[in-house]
Design brief:
This protein is of the alpha+beta class. Helices cover about 40% and strands about 20% of the residues. The longest helix has 18 residues. The protein is elongated and about 100 Å long. It binds zinc ion.
Length: about 475
């Protein structure tokens, strides 16, 4: 029996590092901490030493304004930073400088929305607020000779984040994933986020049924896992006895379950108050307008343009644009080979699938649009069959080798000579005599026979010649019978 009734409500808090910045949010320390020695990028400000004063990174504010505009949020004219007080070793000042929409604070953005399409339907998920804040440091737990130690690395402390908070208006785990994808591609189009940086986008999610307990899941960095964790908690909410209060969960990536990490702090536990070391920032309309004018083409506009310019369906356009590198790859390929449908088919169904399965970084890989255009052209011109192309693609997608050279090098040749096809067709017909009789009644048996021949020849037979030969042989055999 389902315990809970009513609508499922999911809200997301999405933390995005502004990877376009060269320095941290309040100090001149470099922001490229990945691959650095622990505590290399630190200074008295980001270490929170007494007597230091934070100075706001102007470009961080401009980037956050761009994020607000791109997501339809209202940029506030008067912005105040707030202190969120809590004690934790990764937060060396014992408070985080963030933004808060109560207790005398304001966030940079209010409202806004993320558009998603699910099953051909467009939907707007409303946003509550957008804020700027600093990232905490990182704790590294190590166990050596049975002794557990925790190290702290402050390289990440003070990195600029934009936090995007949705209303709890997402009604299924799948939608949550689409919201994350849309936010990611929007910020990548804006040029403020490079998602290939590990941990550059992280998310907290909360889930509840109207009037029931609320579960929060903290700090997940993979979209697939957000969806999985939400599905898991949805089931618990539906089948387990009513829970009393709000619980915070930590998603165990390896275990695939969520574990209780702590009772949720109430907002008042953080004793928010306006940050006294940073004067309020006044954002003039002129600045907002300048940033608005310099906005690049954003995903929603790009989807519309793809439909208009390339004549593809909105559904297909949305899928392509949901990942900027894929959309870029598509456009570059179409510029070389003007066949959008075919390019989209090969890119989405074959290339992206291989990138995923082989774990290849979309944004940085050896296979180029020229390579895909050439492969499709080789099929069209009859140098290789589709099946051969799929086989070739497995290789060249990771090595970047030219398709034509690869085909030559491994001696892949399309088989066109009937005398090479006949023995294979005959052997298949001999193995299964029933095929011969059925082929007369049912055209699809011919497809089946062609498929079997292709299997034996690794897909190298010219499909038209093969089909003609199959029909010819069947006719011959039937008249001899
Ligand atoms: Zn610093």
């Amino acid at each position: 029996m389902l315990r809970e009734t009513g609508k499922l409500k999911i809200g997301l808090e999405i933390h995005v590092q502004l990877t376009n910045l060269r320095t941290k949010l309040f100090c001149p320390c470099p922001s490229d901490y990945r691959g650095k020695k622990p505590n290399e990028n630190v200074c008295p400000i980001c270490l929170g030493l007494p007597g230091t004063l934070p100075q706001v990174n102007k470009r961080a504010v401009e980037s956050a304004i761009a994020v607000c505009l791109a997501l339809g949020a209202k940029v506030q004219p008067y912005v105040v930073f707030s202190r969120k007080n809590y004690f934790y070793p990764d937060m060396n000042k014992n408070y985080q400088i963030t933004q808060y929409d109560k207790a005398g604070g304001t966030t940079i953005g209010v409202g806004g929305y993320v558009t998603i399409s699910l099953d051909g339907e467009r939907k707007r998920i409303p946003l509550r607020r957008i804020q700027i804040e600093e990232d905490p440091g990182r704790l590294l737990h190590v166990e050596k000779n049975g002794v557990k130690k925790t190290y702290i690395d402050y390289n990440r402390a003070g990195i600029a984040l934009v936090e995007i908070v949705t209303e709890p208006a997402i009604h299924q785990p799948k939608e949550a994933r689409l919201v994350l994808e849309k936010v990611q591609t929007t910020l990548e189009h804006l040029g403020v986020l490079d998602p290939s940086f590990e941990g550059s986008m992280r998310c907290d999610a909360n889930i509840s049924y109207a009037g029931g307990a609320r579960i929060e899941i903290k700090n997940i960095s993979s979209f697939k896992e957000v969806e999985q964790a939400l599905r898991f908690e949805q089931l618990r909410l539906e089948y387990l006895p009513k829970m009393e209060s709000t619980v915070t969960k930590r998603w165990g990536e390896k275990e695939g379950i969520t574990a209780t990490s702590r009772e949720k702090e109430m907002e008042e536990d953080y004793r928010y108050f306006p940050e006294p070391d940073i004067p309020p920032i006044i954002i003039e309309d002129k600045i907002i307008e300048n940033i608005r004018r310099s906005l690049p083409e954003l995903p929603d506009e790009r989807i519309e343009r793809f439909v208009r310019e390339y004549g593809i369906s909105e559904r297909l356009a949305s899928i392509l644009v949901s990942e900027k590198p894929v959309a870029d790859f598509f456009e570059k390929t179409v510029r070389i080979l003007n066949d959008p449908e075919e390019v989209a088919y090969w890119l989405m169904n074959e290339v992206v699938r291989r990138w995923r399965e082989l774990g290849i970084d979309y944004r940085n890989n050896k296979f180029k649009p020229e390579g895909l255009a050439k492969l499709i052209r080789m099929i069209k011109e009859g140098h290789i069959t589709k099946r051969m192309a799929k086989q070739v693609l497995w290789e060249i997608v990771s090595t970047g080798e030219d398709a034509e050279e690869y085909v030559k090098r491994v001696g892949l040749k399309i088989i066109r000579k009937p005398e090479e096809l006949v023995p294979v067709i005959t052997s298949i017909l001999d193995e299964n005599p029933k095929l011969l009789k059925d082929a007369f009644k049912n055209e699809r048996v011919i497809d089946y026979i062609c498929g079997e021949v292709q299997k034996k020849l690794q897909g190298r037979a010219d499909p038209t010649i093969l089909r003609d030969e199959v029909k010819r042989l069947i006719g011959e055999k039937m008249s001899n019978a």
